[in-house]
Amino acid sequence: MKLFSRTKHTDTGPQLVLLVEGMHCTSCGLLIDDELEDIPGVRSSTTDVKAGRTTIRLEEGADVDTAALVAAVQQAGDYRARPAD
After folding, report:
1. Which of 61, 18, 25 is nearest to 43 (CA)?
2. pTM confidence score
3. Which of 6-10, 13-17, 50-54 has the lowest mean pLDDT?
């Protein structure tokens, strides 16, 4: 786990957006990002607590299961996540 070691990526790889409920502060977002970035194939994660969204950038050609991403968010704390429409 890369707790609080934020690295910003400016690339434009494939992305997935999750809607997340239960976040209260910036630390919530950082915990979620750290859990998601531990998943193979995830390049970066950026969580906007106010908007209730997490944008996940994937590595080119990565086959990442959406259910694994949702599970990682739930593992980070008492959060509920679902893919954005």
Report:
1. 61
2. 0.84
3. 6-10
Worst-scoring range by mean pLDDT, 5-9, 25-29, 30-34, 68-72? 5-9
Q: What is the edge-to-edge ordering of all strands in the sheet holding 80-83?
A: 42-48, 53-58, 15-21, 80-83
Identity of the residue numbered 14 = P
Structure tokens at 54: 């997490």
Which residue has 């239960």 as its token pair? 22
> DSSP states of the chain as a string?
--TT----------EEEEEEES--SHHHHHHHHHHHHTSTTEEEEEEETTTTEEEEEE-TT----HHHHHHHHHHHSS-EEEE--
